[in-house]
Amino acid sequence: DIQMTQSPSTLSASVGDRVIIICRASQSISTSLVWYQQKPGKAPNLLIYKASTLYSGVPSRFSGSGSGTEFTLTISSLQPDDFATYYCQHDDSYPFTFGPGTKVDVK
Amino acid sequence: EVQLVQSGGGLVKPGGSLRLSCAGSGFTAPGFSFTDAWMSWVRQAPGKGLEWVGRIKSKASGGAADYAPPVKGRFTISKDDSRSTLYLQMNSLRTDDTAVYYCTTGRWGGEAHWGQGTLVTVSS
After folding, report:
1. Is B97 strand, coil or helix?
2. Are the CB atoms for A87 and A38 separated by under 8 Å?
3. Of B49, B106, B115, which is closest to A98 when you measure between CB atoms?
4. Spatial contact of A93 and A3, defined as CB atoms under 8 Å apart
5. How many angstroms separate the CA atoms of B97 and A37, rounded?
6. What would you measure as the largest C-alpha separation in chain A, in angstroms?
7. Per-residue pLDDT tens for B3-30?
8. Do A49 and B114 touch (CB under 8 A)?
9. What is the distance in angstroms between the Cα of B85 and the nearest Cα belonging to chain A?
């Protein structure tokens, strides 16, 4: 099974900051990588699929890049609504494992 | 707008069984009916991260389901297209199956639509 890791586990930032979250796969998954945002008590929201395709309605300050085993989620200018936990997930082959999550909190 | 409404959670003793349901509506986009949808279950233990449980393909794609190792052989995913309902039958439940369970689906990649989540508590 493919294992996913994320770094950092927690990120403290301020409104307006550029934020970068890294996700790594234990083997190559091409661009079969998805990013989600989750707020406490809520279902996750899809942000990006196929590593870099922005899902409809997601603000353009979110972007994704990478292929193979290393991927990044970038928030170009952090907004108050962006404080949340972010998860990557691969959908290359079953089982579709998630990363452990990165919590973005207020600095 | 696709909506997924879940039901069936609750408290169950270790070794017991429970069935979760997920009723879909609003599948109006051309080529994306409930019948066409591949659907998944994801769970989240209290205070923990997301865990993929399994996925079922549409009948047109073979209708097979795949499962995460911790639930394989105990959980069964099924889909009743005539009722627009997805099911998760959970048998031989263990305390570490305690979680909020979400049904999900998506069209182009990733899970774009999520149910509201339903809590399953396995405890004696």
Report:
1. helix
2. yes
3. B49
4. no
5. 23
6. 38
7. 999 999 999 999 999 999 999 999 998 8
8. no
9. 19
Share of chain B above pLDDT 70, in %: 100
Average pLDDT over residues A57-80: 98
User: Largest Cα–Cα distance in chain B?
Assistant: 47
Alpha carbons B10 and B113: distance in angstroms, whole number: 23
Residue for token pair 């294992």: A3
Phi-psi region for residue A82, left (φ > 0), alpha (ψ -120 to 50) or beta?
A: alpha
User: What span, in angstroms and rounded, lies between the C-alpha atoms of A50 and A34?
Assistant: 6
In which element (H, E) is residue B50 found? strand B50-56
Question: What's the count of helices (H) and strands (E) in chain A, helices before strands?
Answer: 0, 10
d(CA B17, CA B96): 14
Cβ of A44 within 8 Å of Cβ of B69? The answer is: no
A101 touches chain B (CB under 8 A): yes
Q: What would the two tokens of residue B69 be?
A: 């190792």
